[in-house]
Fold this protein.
Amino acid sequence: MAQNDEARATREGAGRRRRVPKIPLIIGIGVVAVLVVASALAWRAEAKTNKVDLAASPQPVTVFAASAQPFRVVHLYVGALRPWVEAHVGPQFISAYVEAVFVRPGAVVKKGEVLATLDCRDASAQTAAASAEAKAIATRQLAIAHEAERTSSLLEGGFVSPNDAEIVTARSGSEAAELAAQRAHLVRSALGVRDCILRAPFDGEVSARLVDPGSFVRPGTEMVGVVDRNTVRMTADAPEGDFDDIAPGTRVNVRVLAIGLNVQATITRRAPNAHPGTRTVYFEIDIDDADRRIPVDTTGQIELAVGKPVPATAVPIKAVTIEESKATFFTVEGGVAHKRTVVELGEAGPDVFFKPDVLAPGTDVVLEGHALLSDGDRVAAKPAQPEMKGSEQ
């Protein structure tokens, strides 16, 4: 039995001695694999490194050919689009609580339509009392007038003294004056009663509702706003030097900025003088708006072309850096960018215009990428997309 145990122990020891050399072998293989992978990664990184100087490589840009277009000086004025007429409806004679308001902003109303009512029971009672008082005075005045006639007829026969006749006649005149005063008071009271029913002064639209039922209003309080947009008045001011350019009848283009609408119109009227403080001349343009599309009390831009069109070369404004009247841009010739600074002819829409002898039509101008360029840089140019050219931008 002991011999068997020794033999088993001997075999186990021999097996352990045979397995021990495998561990260093595995470690060695792992180290070699790591070195191979690291070498491959280092070679790959080195292969992707750009050995060429960036300054020497062409810079990518987009170019387009400057186009020949006529240029005409356009004056721009900013003004306000106003309704033809507007009113702020409210009481004029009495103070009272608001009983009802029947309209809200956007409602279309006709002339004479009821907009709101006031609680005028007190005013109605006063009017009724004034009317009754006027009737009483009229009755007394009529009786005294008849008495004066009879007294005057008795005066000729000597039945009454002249003094008594004069007294009766004076009483009749006094009653007539009192009746006239009472009737005037009655008219004023009637105006107050009519003031309790607020009506639209013209055909139009409700622009504002400033009070609700239960509010207390006084004379002069604005309750409902009404505007008429069938004709819109474009009002603006121009420098005094443009007085002749804004003569009535001059054709202009009005751009409604709120809705992006362009309207062709003519200047309707012009002030004969300049404002003494701003030295600007006020003028107006009437715009037909029967479909009531234009929002009023908004901003509009007036474009007025002056002079005659002249030949010019157009460049998109995004390709140009403008400082005062000088424009800087880059042209491309033979794969090299050339910086140019010239005097501009003017601007119109998305384009800048130059005289043809300053910039010839067909010249390649850098559109995108010019911000990183310097004069003399090499460029790799590609044509700009059609939608990026000129006024199509």
Q: What stands out?
A: The chain has four helices and 23 strands.
